Amino acid sequence: MSLSHKGFAQDSSDASVQLADNYLERSPLYDYGDLQLNNTFTIPDYETKTNKLKISGTIYESDGVTPAKDVILYIDQADEHGDFDLREDNDKRYVHHRGWIKTNADGQYTFYTFIPGNDRRYNQLQQLFPIIKEPSKPEYEIGSFLFDDDPLLSKLCRKRMAKKGDPSRILKPVKKDGVFVVQKDIVLNSTNSNTK
Q: Is the whole-model pTM more than 0.90?
């Protein structure tokens, strides 16, 4: 996929436009090039993966009720072996297994991807790494999405998350017609860090 050198802020009055224009240093969220974003995206190599995953949900405003329209959600992830497939375009390195959606009027989104592997050399959990971009606001990271049956997700880690973290980050996909399916709703808030 060829990436353009243009900035991709949603609003020209957005303070993050200047950051987005710095191609080599900006967040990968802005690297969608000429793609026409909608609320569904298929991660590269999806068709060749064994543990296919459909992750979908609704992104809500901070009240937890109102659907958040036109929010960009970016994810990237390791491959099925727990390694990040790094590529380069125009002197910028990027993760090959990545994608973008923009929520519809109902705040809904869907990614077709696959369950990433562990990198046991570095005790790396199976994770999807999300970044959020609300209209007229800077982008921000939210907690990575984890997987309930990950052998490296220890009881201690789960206890800590239940006490101080966000246990809803742990996804529990169910296999249907050969594809793992899970719903992950996200609630936006003023601190830019809360997920549901």
A: no
Q: Which of 190, 186, 189, 156 is nearest to 171 (CA)?
A: 186
Q: Which two tokens stand for residue 166?
A: 């966000």
Residue by residue, DSSP assigns 138-188 as: --EE-PPBEETT-TTS-HHHHHHHHHHS-GGGEE--EEETTEEEEE--EE-
Comparing 27 with 100, the larger pLDDT belongs to 100
The answer to whether 49 and 85 have CB atoms below 8 angstroms apart is no
Give start and end residues of each alpha helix (H) in the chain: 17-21, 155-164
Structural tokens at position 190? 């003023």
Residue for token pair 């996909």: 173
DSSP secondary-structure letter at 195?
-
